Amino acid sequence: MPLFAQIINLLAALFLLTAFAMLSQRRLANLINLYAWQGLILTLGIAVAAYGTRSIHLYVSALVNGVLKVVAIPMLLRRLVRRLDVQWDRESLVRIPTMMLIGLALVVFAFNASLPIADFAHTADHETVGIALASVLLSLLTMILRTTAVSQVIGFLALENGLIFAATSVTYGMPMVIEFGIALDVIVGIFILGVVFFHIRSQFDSLDLHHMEGHGE
Amino acid sequence: MVLLWVILIPLAGGVFLGALGHRRWAFFANIAFSAATALAACVMTADVLRAGPLLALRQQFFIDPLNVFLVDLTALVGLTTSIFSRSYMRVEDRLGHLTQARLRAYHAMYQLFLFTMLLALTTNNIGVLWVAMEGATLSTALLVSLYRTPQGLAAAWKSIILCGVGIALALLGTILVYFAAHAVLGAGGALLWTRLEAVKARLDPAVMAVAFVFLVVGYGTKVGLVPLHNWLPDAHAEGPAPISALLSGLLLNVALYAIVRFKALASGTPDAHWPAALMMGFGLVSVLVATFSLGRQRDVKRLFAYSSIEHMGLATFAFGMGGPLANFAALLHMTVHSLTKSSIFFTSGHVAQKAGTRDTQRIAGVMDSSPAAGWAFLLGGLAILGMPPFGVFASEFLILTAAVHDAPWSVPLLILALGVAFATIFQATQGMVFGASPGPRGSRDLALAPSFVHLALVLALGLYIPHALAAWYAAAARLAGR
Q1: pTM here?
Q2: Which residues of chain A make contact with B154, given a CB cutoff of 8 A?
């Protein structure tokens, strides 16, 4: 296995680790830091893949992802948390050790589910597909088990990170236009969600999603 | 090149109406842009009729029989809805429900919403399709929370998060399709429908299997397939009536269109039966759950939102069965459901606006206070329930015929569901249409003209399907595969 593929493997393991850490973290400031770290690992992964395949388009993709996910989005989120004055997520529905066990089961499932894909992969390295799928599922779990709006959104952003990681590890990235489109959608989405946060807060006096239930039925 | 105009006009409209801010003539400008889009769609259709399928801008955009009628439908309903929107939103404005800034956002988002849907339909690139669907999700969220009520915000939140996650899973599916196609086609063209279609028998079945599961779940969230339908009734109920009409009449179709195309790819290898089974399962569960939820709805718009889930489920089920007859029926069903349901949302929005409530128990005597609204409601209700001679009868009859042949076990379930839906919706609409009106008799107005135009088209399609349309349906049914 070439060196760059081994490095991507290492980064994939770290990526999975941040996904687990986000599952257990209840303090929002730490959650945002973890998101930024995850973004950094993703950026490094893309950059290493770019170096390994001599692909200019992957360098550009690494740059876009780095600027967006290490700098811009964490900064926006921090400002949002400060202005909304929320610091902690509520006690979640399931206790943290139980969450970790469910997470472990998901990882095993993801590795099994990705076997047919990994067999077929023509990129340098096969295991990363399972890891990417596992972190997508872990982010979904984070979203399901969290009860405040902000941590759900961070779970959603982590989910998107997992997808980009999957794209990089499976196919060495999507075509440029698509990546720009995805980045544009993410950034517009963040702004809209930010606006919705403020309106939700002013209408419900809280970002706790339990208050919102009962309004739909 | 006229194909590009179909996409560029609503984009320009959105930017123009957003940049200029709200003016008195913005209602009219909205109609003008929608009419220009519809005109461009007409010219495009004439081209297609003369010269056959189109490719534009280095193969990035295309028109074939499967999307040509959907583009026409989108442009047409976009136009009629903008006409209805003028009278509806002017009343909302007069009642003081909306500020100038909100009206500006409304008109800009209306055009951008049309833009994202037309882009999703005409693009030849499955990546751009994804980006457009995500754009549609975001613009829906803004339109749904237009009134900034607690319910509206909760609905917008649900729609962003639920559809966002759904769409994210669809992206994973798209990545996997790209991955499977990459091995066959190389990096260039591995995202283009036309190229994928040509090599679909050579795509790796194992990868396509995983990809299609993610795609059905992902885009299925936008179609409103149970159990991913939770956002849909809220979004339909809380947005302004024209937006409910667009959501139900157009957006659901566009999402289903994406699933149908992917199904054609995934069942490209001869022994792949599971995409069909998956769609039939999702479709049937949606039909059953939606019909049995109908009885609990007291909000008129939620009632018809559940009816949309039922009808989209029926179409999904039919596409799942596949084959020329079922596909033909499903395509016809998409068309007539779209026209009928948007007509019903016009009428129910108009009625709820007059009555000041959306509660089915408190609305009464619509026929008494305004005969036009009463007739539109009555006929729309009968049409959506599949009464002959309306077009929905024809499509549902064809779907049942195909089901008797291909999946006889499902027929009792479908008949049960249609019966329950009939009883529930018929009772609810009768209660609202007849009886004595509590309020004064309304004056005659033309607000509901678009409603009647749609119903007339549905009636016409029930009696006679034009030759060109039937040819498109037949060709599209072949594209959609077995």
Answers
A1: 0.94
A2: 200, 212, 215-216
